[in-house]
Structure formats: C-alpha cells, structure tokens
C-alpha cells in the first residue's frame, strides 16, 4: 500500500507534492489573496527592470505577497545571508545547464535555504524532492546518504526537472507551477480552461490552491531579495564561513572526528555536508565521498590528514579544491601537499608555547591544533610534535 501511494504521488504531483516551504505557506495564510491590494506603478517598474528571461508579472496577488514579505525582516535577513553561500552553487549549475539565473529563487520559496527542510509529505532538502522523484532525477537516497540535501546535486536535479517542463510548455511560469503541482495538474487545468497552449495566468484559477499562490510567491521573492534595502532588510551573517574547501575522502570517517581535527563546530560541518546520515561519510577508493570544510589555515590540514590516515591506507592522493562564492565555475582541483615534515620537541624548564613557536618559526595556534592542546600551558617533559615550515 505504501509503495502504491508513493508512486501515486509521483504521478499526480510535482517535485514536492505542493510541498513549498511551510514558512512561505504560513506567510501566505496571513494574506487574504482575494482582498484588494493597492497597486503601485513603482513596483511594476522595479519588476520590469529586474526581469531577464522569466516573466515577472506584477498584479494584486504579487503585491500582497510583497507587502507580507517586506514585514518579515528577520526571516529574509537570514535568507539573504545564507544566499551568499547557496546561490553561487546554483548559479554555476544553472549556467552549465542553460537555465535562467533567476530560477535560483525557487529554492527560497521551497525551503527557505534550509538543506534539512522537510515538508508534511516528506519532500526534503533545499529543492524539496519527494523520495521517488529524487531517484528519478538521479539522486541517491539510502540508509547512509540522502542527496536531496546536497546543494550541488539537488540543484542539478531541479534544473533537469525545470528544463523538462519548459520543453513541454515553452513557458517558464508554467514550468515553475509544474514544479509545485506536477505536469498532470497543468494539463488538466488547461483542459478545464478551454484547451490549447494557455499560459499560467489564464489557467491559474483551475490549478490547486497552493499553486495559485506559488508563482506569485516566486515573483515576490525575486523582488524582495533584490530590493531588500528599500524595506529596511539587510543580510544577516550566514553563521558559518562561506569560503570552503572540498576534498574527496576514500574511507569511512565521522564528521565528529573531522570537527575535532580541524577545530570546526560540528553543526557547521553538518550544515556543509547535510546529505550524510548519522554524520558518517562512507567513502571507498572506488566511490570516494565529497567532504566540504570551511577554509582553514594550511597547517590544520596536517591534523586533518592524520585523522584520515588513522584507518585503512589511502589509495591515491587527497585532493582539495578552493571555491569562492564569486566564482563563475568551480576551481580546478589541485593536489594538496601536506606539510608533514615534523620533529619531536621535549619541553624544557622555562619554555612557553610562545617561545617554542618562535624557536621553530611557527605559531602557538599551530602547535595547539597539531598536538590537540586545550590550553596554552606547557610543562617540562611534555613531547610536542612541531611542523617545520
């Protein structure tokens, strides 16, 4: 029975079965979509200036949601901060696949840029894929991995869905609507509206109630995210270092151990690597797993490499790739050569961490991280590992 229900959802729904963000749904409930809104020519002009490929229609429904979103300063401030990390990922994927850049804002509508978001029907991740639909679009979902939460892979799958929909309708607003309600609902709405290749606004009243608000929500989100200062909304700090490094790990390793080795908050590592269940990477030489860590100082990689070498021997090299949010495309991976030429030093009477660091042309922080010291006090007789620079 469960399997039958699951495939019924795939047949009749879009990616997330009307599963766009609970926060967005809540904000819509606070707006009476049938009450009149005061039209403002300035808003229409602003949307016209923002429009690139996807039509940004201005009407009363859009204005009501703009008014609602403009009052949600804290919520949009947070999403503006998070967008500095997620949007460059989407932009690179969409550019490669030939999608309009502005479709990245759908992820804001879907999940409020939360990789762990889950809807009432089980749609999951930044792009809110149902499990069966995610699998259709190439996302792995099993006991150890849920790639619906991976920003790169999920945005690629979302791009494929939207491209398929656009090929069917030659209309980006209908492609967006189908992402919410599915292709069958678009077909039925067109039939009920009289048949033919009708556009979104013509068939809108024949679509599910949530889809009637979905496209206006997208347009209002594009407006707010690009005109936030006008409404006193400013980006909050993302809460983590948005500059990251990526490496391929060919062994089973815990994010907790990586957090300890790199002195990184486990919550940050979990946010950057959201697809790994139980915070475990199950990498193998044949199928290495991607590990994303915040940008860290070079010497800390020695501690990380030591952590990764604790289990079975590495087969092949470790690679690191530095990617900045401003990049148009991921940087070419470059081999990381660890500074693992080290000596052992026995602490002498009168030594301090500062004097030892100076003696070996290093830093106190470097010595603390490599030797896993919780404080800066060293005692005579202690043996420290020192990396020679």
UniProtKB/TrEMBL annotation:
<dbReference type="Pfam" id="PF01476">
    <property type="entry name" value="LysM"/>
</dbReference>
<dbReference type="InterPro" id="IPR036779">
    <property type="entry name" value="LysM_dom_sf"/>
</dbReference>
<dbReference type="InterPro" id="IPR008258">
    <property type="entry name" value="Transglycosylase_SLT_dom_1"/>
</dbReference>
<dbReference type="Pfam" id="PF01464">
    <property type="entry name" value="SLT"/>
</dbReference>
<comment type="similarity">
    <text>Belongs to the transglycosylase Slt family.</text>
</comment>
<dbReference type="InterPro" id="IPR000189">
    <property type="entry name" value="Transglyc_AS"/>
</dbReference>
<feature type="domain" description="LysM">
    <location>
        <begin position="343"/>
        <end position="386"/>
    </location>
</feature>
<protein>
    <submittedName>
        <fullName>Transglycosylase SLT domain-containing protein</fullName>
    </submittedName>
</protein>
<dbReference type="InterPro" id="IPR023346">
    <property type="entry name" value="Lysozyme-like_dom_sf"/>
</dbReference>
<dbReference type="InterPro" id="IPR018392">
    <property type="entry name" value="LysM"/>
</dbReference>
């Amino acid at each position: 029975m469960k399997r039958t229900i699951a495939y019924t959802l795939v047949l009749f729904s879009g990616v997330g079965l009307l599963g766009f963000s609970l926060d967005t749904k809540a904000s819509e409930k606070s707006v009476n979509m049938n009450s009149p809104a005061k039209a403002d020519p300035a808003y229409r002009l602003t949307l016209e200036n923002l429009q690139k490929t996807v039509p940004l229609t201005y009407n009363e429904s859009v204005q009501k949601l703009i008014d609602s979103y403009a009052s949600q300063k804290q919520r949009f401030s947070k999403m503006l901060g998070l967008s500095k990390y997620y949007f460059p990922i989407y932009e690179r994927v969409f550019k490669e696949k030939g999608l309009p850049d502005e479709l990245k804002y759908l992820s804001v509508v879907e999940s409020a840029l939360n990789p762990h978001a889950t809807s009432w029907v089980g749609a999951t991740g930044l792009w809110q894929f149902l499990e069966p639909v995610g699998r259709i679009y190439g996302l792995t979902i099993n006991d150890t991995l849920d790639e619906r939460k991976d920003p790169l892979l999920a945005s690629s799958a979302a791009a494929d869905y939207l491209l398929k929909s656009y090929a069917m309708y030659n209309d980006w607003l209908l492609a967006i609507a189908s992402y919410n309600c599915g292709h069958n609902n678009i077909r039925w709405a067109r039939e009920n509206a009289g048949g033919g290749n009708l556009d979104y606004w013509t068939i809108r009243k024949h679509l599910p109630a949530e889809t009637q608000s979905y496209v206006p929500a997208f347009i209002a989100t594009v407006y707010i995210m690009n005109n936030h200062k006008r409404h006193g909304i400013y980006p909050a700090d993302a809460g983590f270092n948005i500059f990251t490094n990526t490496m391929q790990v060919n062994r089973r390793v815990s994010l907790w151990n990586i957090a300890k080795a790199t002195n990184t908050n486990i919550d940050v590592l979990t946010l950057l690597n959201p697809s790994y269940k139980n915070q475990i990477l199950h990498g193998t030489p044949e199928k290495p797993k991607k590990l994303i860590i915040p940008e860290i100082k070079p010497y800390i990689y020695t501690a990380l490499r030591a952590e990764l070498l604790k289990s079975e021997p590495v087969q092949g090299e470790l690679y690191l790739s530095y990617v900045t949010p401003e990049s148009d495309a991921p940087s070419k991976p470059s081999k990381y050569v660890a500074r693992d030429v080290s000596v052992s030093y026995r602490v002498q009477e009168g030594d301090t961490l500062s004097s030892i660091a100076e003696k070996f042309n290093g830093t106190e922080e470097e010595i603390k991280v490599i030797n896993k010291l919780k404080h800066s006090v060293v005692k005579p007789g202690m043996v420290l590992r020192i990396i020679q620079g």
